[in-house]
Structure formats: structure tokens, C-alpha cells
Amino acid sequence: ELKVEQNPLFLSMQEGKNYTIYCNYSTTSDRLYWYRQDPGKSLESLFVLLSNGAVKQEGRLMASLDTKARLSTLHITAAVHDLSATYFCAVDQIEGNKLVFGAGTILRVKS
Amino acid sequence: KAGVTQTPRYLIKTRGQQVTLSCSPISGHRSVSWYQQTPGQGLQFLFEYFSETQRNKGNFPGRFSGRQFSNSRSEMNVSTLELGDSALYLCASSLVHRNEKLFFGSGTQLSVL
């Protein structure tokens, strides 16, 4: 059974600092997603990583995937308050659009 | 282009009742998946429909069911509601089964009293 673990579960950062969120998964998969969720809102797609060594960047966020280590990272550069949200990684089980989500990382960026 | 539309946005029911939630995917999308989000269990997969056929099912009791119509719109039904069914129910659509671009709707917040 596929398990997805995120850490940390809560992250309080100062503006301007860098930090990384980690996502480990337990069985082989060929795609990994990162989503952002604001309170009371739906999931906003950030990145889809499809192959080993994939790296994608959007603004202050950069995601990478190491399929051999079954590890993805979401790196935050020079955090700003607007990045405060909950971030989820999700791994697609090979048999279909059946995502297994991590528990989520609550990110709070303090001024 | 309209996004994934879920109705209703909020719903309050009492234990023992049944409820039907609706999801209209993005135009042209034929795959619809449903997820339940609760503070305790997080986000959990319910089921996926593609071309009116259920392709995958999560570990939920038989009280949870769904269907998809020929226009790709999907409904999910929960019968004999329990307090623990209170959750945000999210629907996601994609062009085809196993397409990596998955788009989520705003969800239906169900409260069971």
C-alpha cells in the first residue's frame, strides 16, 4: 500500500528565509504532484513531476523529484507572506488517477 | 474556459439522511475523481469515473457511491449519513484517464448534525 509522508507538518518562517519541505513515498510511482491550499479553498496545482531528476520552478518555489530515493522536495526561496498556505504532495498510484496525499505542511511566513 | 464546478457549495444534513453532490468537469474532460478531506484523515481518494465507468475505488464503505453521465458530469451519493461524513468533498477532472493535468473544483462542504 502506497504511503506518503511529508515533513515538517508545520513550518513557521521569517520573510526572506529559505526552507525545504520533504515528501517521501513508499512504492514506485511515475508522477508526483504538489498542491497549495488556502483556508476554505480548493487545491491549486503547483507542479507535476513526471520523471527522475525532474526540476520545476515557479517564482519562489522549486520542486524536484528523485524516484530512486522516492523523495520529492519543495524549496522555498526568500519567503514572502503571500506564500502562507498548506502545501500537499500527492503521488499517483500507477493504476490510475488515484492520488495518495501527504498530510500537508502548514506554512506560516511571518513579517 | 470554465473550471470544475461543484454544487452545492455548502450542505447541512442530519444523521441518517442521504445526500447527492454534483460535479461538472471542465468542458472536454472525461475523467472525474472524488476526494474526501477531513481534519483527521486528510485527503482520501473516493473513486474515479471515466467514460461513465468506475475505474478506481478507494477504501470507503458501500454507503458512498457515484456515477457519471454521458456528458461527463458526475454525482456522488452518501446514504445513511454519519457524523464522521462531515467533510469537504472535492472533485477533480482531467482530459482522460491517467492524464497528469488534474484540476480540482472548489468543493462541497458537508456538515452532518
Please tally the helical runs of chain B, counting DSSP H or I stretches of 4 or more residues.
0
Alpha-beta classification of chain A: mainly beta
Determine the fraction of residues in helical runs of chain B and give it as a percent range.
under 10%
Rg of Cα set of chain B: 13 Å
Largest sheet of chain A: 6 strands, mixed
Describe the biggest sheet of chain B?
A: 7 strands, mixed
SSE arrangement:
The complex is a heterodimer of chains A (111) and B (113).
Chain A: E1 4-7, E2 10-14, E3 19-25, E4 32-37, E5 43-49, E6 55-58, E7 61-66, E8 71-76, E9 85-92, E10 99-101, E11 105-110
Parallel strand pairs in A: 2-11
Antiparallel strand pairs in A: 1-3, 3-8, 4-5, 4-9, 6-7, 7-8, 9-10, 9-11
Chain B: E1 5-7, E2 10-13, E3 19-24, E4 31-38, E5 42-50, E6 53-57, E7 64-68, E8 74-78, E9 87-94, E10 103-104, E11 108-112
Parallel strand pairs in B: 2-11
Antiparallel strand pairs in B: 1-3, 3-8, 4-5, 4-9, 5-6, 7-8, 9-10, 9-11
Q: Would you kindly provide a written description of the structure presented here, covering whatever features stand out?
A:
The complex is a heterodimer of chains A (111) and B (113). Chain A has 111 residues and is mainly beta. Chain A has no helices and eleven strands. Chain B is mostly beta strands. Chain B has no helices and eleven strands. Chain B has strands spanning 5-7, 10-13, 19-24, 31-38, 42-50, 53-57, 64-68, 74-78, 87-94, 103-104, 108-112. The A-B interface holds A 31, 33, 35, 41-45, 48, 50, 88, 90, 92, 95-104 and B 31, 33, 35, 42-45, 48, 55-56, 58, 90, 92, 94, 97-107.
